[in-house]
Specification:
The chain has 18 helices and 17 strands. The protein is of the alpha/beta class. It has 2 domains: 161 residues, 3-Layer(aba) Sandwich (Rossmann fold); 298 residues, Alpha-Beta Horseshoe (pyruvate-formate lyase- activating enzyme), CATH 3.80.30. The strands form 4 sheets. The protein has a 7-stranded mixed sheet with strand order 4-1-5-6-7-8-9, sandwiched between helices. Strands 10-13-14-15-16-17 form a 6-stranded parallel sheet. Helix 10 links the parallel strand 14 and strand 15. It is globular, with a radius of gyration of 24 Å. 41% of the residues are buried.
Length: 528
C-alpha cells in the first residue's frame, strides 16, 4: 500500500472584524508524529510519501501532486489553526481520488465532533495514530471493513461509529525510531542554521489549563502512563539516526515538555551523549524540578540554554487560573540556579489571560525582571479549543464558542483593553529591561525607580495606540531582515545569534567527545 501523509504547516492571521489578512506565517517545521508514523508503516511493508505544505497552495497544484503520488490511503495531520485548510484539502482529495482519508493530530483529539462534520474525512484517529493508520492500511489492502477500527471514529453510511482509543504504547523503546528522512531538510526552518528538533519522550504529567495534554491524557484507559521516556541508550540511537539523516546537524533543540527529570537516567544519558553525539543543545523544563545536580549534568552534556515557564507573575492567575502550582520563590530560585550553572534561560510568558488586568501583567513584567532571564517570550494568549482555559473563556463571555481558527482571536474582557494588551505585547521586553536596571539600585533608589516605572506602565494617558503602530512597523522590518539573513547569510546570522544566546559550538570538545567510528561525534563547525 502507498500512503501519502499531507502536512499543512503554516498559519494565517485574519482580522476578526474585516476578515482581512494580517499575516501569513509560512512553515518549515519537523513533525515527530509524522516521522514516527512513517517508520511504523514502512516497517510493515508500506510505501510512504510526505506532502509538506509550508504555504497555501492552489487546487491545481494540490491535485496534480495527488495524481503524481497516486496513494491508496491519504493521511492528514491537523492542528487547530490549520484545520480550515485541512477541510479544503480533504474536499479536493475526495474529488480527485477514491482512497480513504484519515485525519489525526491535535485538533481531532481536541474536537473530534468538529472533524466528523467534514464529510470527506472517512476516519478520525483518536490518540496516538501509528497503529491505527497501519491497521487501516492492512484492512484496506485485504478488503476488510474498518468500521470497528480501534482508535478511530469511522464514517459508515453517513453515520459516525465511535470506537474507543487504543492503549498508550508504554514502552517507547519498542517503537521503531522515527524516519527523519521523510522530510526534506533543505526545506526545514532550522537547516540553514544547523539546528534540528528532537523529542525522546511523549506526554506530560502536569495539567496546566492552557494546554491540550489533560484532554489528550483522558483519552486513554492506561492514562497513568501518559508521560513516557526512551531509555538513555535508545535516546542516543534516536539522535544518531537524526544525525545520519541530517549530517550538517550542529545544535539540537529538545522539544519535550520536560527534559529528563530523572537523575539516574540523565547520568547515563550524559555519559553516552558526550561520547557519541557531542552537540550543544537546548531543552524545556519546569522550575520546580530544577536542582543543582540536574543542571550540572545537563551542562556537562552540552545544554547551553533552557526554556522555563513563568507564564504569569501574578500568583492568582498563575496558580488558580493556569493551575501551575508554582511559588514565586521557586521560580526565582530556578532561574538563579541556571545562571550559576552557566545555562542561559528563556522565560515563557503569556498575556491577555482570563481575568487579567494591567496590574496582573505588571506582576509578570516585574517577576521576569527579578528572575533575570536572558530572554523573555510574551505571546498573547490564544483560546485553543479542547483546553480548560478555552472553556473558561467561553463560559465568561471572553471568547466566542465558535470562531474561525484563522482569526487572530484575543479575549475581550472588561479588565483589559485591546490597546493595553497590544502595548504590552510590543513593549514587554523593554519594560523588563528597565525594571532590571531599576532593581540594581540600592534600597530607596530601587523603590523610586520601580515606582516611576509602575506609574508609566499603568498611566491612563500613555499614548499607547501610536506607540503600538510604531512597534508594529519596527517588528515587521526586523522579522523581514531576520528571515532574509537566515536564508541569504546563514553563517553571519548564526554568528550574531550565537553571540546573543551564548551558543558554544566553537569550543573544543573534551577528550571523550573525540570522533567515533560512527562519525557522529565530530566537532561541530563553528557556530551553528
Amino acid at each position: 500500500m502507498k500512503v501519502l501523509l499531507v502536512y499543512p504547516d503554516f498559519t494565517v492571521d485574519l482580522d476578526p472584524a474585516t476578515k482581512r489578512l494580517l499575516a501569513l506565517n509560512e512553515g518549515g517545521w519537523y513533525s515527530e508524529g509524522l516521522a514516527s508514523i512513517a517508520a511504523v508503516l514502512r516497517g510493515k511493508g508500506h510505501t510512504v510519501a510526505l506532502y509538506h505544505i509550508t504555504a497555501p497552495v492552489e487546487r491545481e497544484a494540490f491535485t496534480a501532486r495527488l495524481r503524481d503520488e497516486a496513494p491508496d490511503v491519504v493521511g492528514f495531520t491537523a492542528v487547530t489553526r490549520c484545520f480550515h485548510w485541512v477541510k479544503e484539502y480533504a474536499r479536493w482529495t475526495k474529488q480527485t481520488l477514491k482512497a480513504p482519508i484519515i485525519c489525526g493530530g491535535y485538533h481531532p483529539n481536541s474536537f473530534p465532533e468538529e472533524v466528523a462534520q467534514v464529510e470527506e474525512i472517512d476516519v478520525i484517529a483518536i490518540g496516538e495514530g501509528e497503529e491505527t493508520i497501519a491497521e487501516l492500511c492492512e484492512r484496506t489492502e485485504t478488503g476488510r471493513s474498518y468500521d470497528d477500527l480501534p482508535g478511530a471514529w469511522v464514517r459508515v453510511n453517513g453515520q459516525i461509529v465511535r470506537n474507543p482509543a487504543r492503549l498508550l504504547v508504554t514502552d517507547l523503546d519498542a517503537m521503531p525510531l522515527p524516519d527523519f528522512d521523510i522530510f526534506d531538510f533543505n526545506r526545514l526552518v532550522g537547516t540553514g542554521i544547523g539546528s534540528a528538533i528532537a523529542n525522546p519522550s511523549r506526554g506530560c504529567p502536569f495539567s496546566c489549563t492552557y494546554c491540550i495534554n489533560p484532554r489528550t491524557r483522558s483519552l486513554y484507559a492506561n492514562r497513568k502512563h501518559y508521560w513516557r521516556l526512551r531509555t538513555p541508550q535508545r535516546s542516543i540511537e534516536y539522535l544518531e539516526k537524526l544525525a545520519t539523516a541530517y549530517p550538517k546537524l550542529q545544535v539540537i533543540h529538545f522539544c519535550n515538555d520536560i527534559f529528563a527529570p530523572d537523575i539516574p537516567w540523565l547520568e547515563e544519558f550524559t555519559t553516552l551523549y558526550r561520547r557519541k553525539i557531542a552537540r550543544p543543545f537546548t531543552c524545556n523544563h519546569r522550575v520546580n524540578l530544577i536542582t543543582p545536580e540536574l543542571l550540572r549534568l545537563l551542562r556537562e552534556a552540552g545544554c547551553y540554554q533552557m526554556f522555563l515557564g513563568i507564564e504569569s507573575g501574578n500568583d492568582r492567575i498563575r496558580n488558580q487560573v493556569l493551575n501551575r502550582s508554582l511559588a514565586r520563590e521557586t521560580i526565582l530560585r530556578a532561574f538563579k540556579q541556571c545562571r550559576e550553572a552557566g545555562i542561559h534561560t528563556v522565560a515563557y510568558n503569556m498575556i491577555g489571560l482570563p481575568f487579567e488586568d494591567k496590574r496582573a501583567i505588571l506582576d509578570t513584567i516585574r517577576l521576569n525582571a527579578e528572575a533575570r532571564a536572558d530572554h523573555s517570550l510574551c505571546p498573547i494568549f490564544y483560546p485553543y479549543p479542547g483546553t480548560r482555559l478555552h472553556e473558561v473563556s467561553v463560559e465568561h463571555g471572553f471568547a466566542p464558542a465558535v470562531f474561525d481558527y484563522r482569526e487572530a482571536v484575543v479575549l475581550v474582557q472588561p479588565t483589559l483593553s485591546q490597546s493595553e494588551l497590544f502595548f504590552t505585547r510590543y513593549y514587554f521586553r523593554l519594560f523588563v529591561t528597565l525594571y532590571r536596571l531599576a532593581f540594581r539600585f540600592p534600597g530607596p533608589l530601587r523603590r523610586l525607580g520601580a515606582a516611576f516605572l509602575n506609574a508609566v506602565f499603568l498611566s491612563p494617558v500613555l499614548p499607547r495606540r501610536p506607540l503600538i503602530a510604531l512597534a508594529r512597523g519596527w517588528e515587521a522590518a526586523f522579522v523581514a531582515l531576520k528571515n532574509w539573513a537566515r536564508q541569504r547569510m546563514p553563517r553571519m546570522y548564526k554568528l550574531v545569534r550565537d553571540r546573543v544566546r551564548g551558543v558554544r559550538t566553537a569550543e573544543t570538545p573534551p577528550p571523550e567527545m573525540a570522533p567515533t567510528s560512527s562519525g557522529l561525534a565530530e566537532t561541530p563547525e563553528p557556530p551553528e
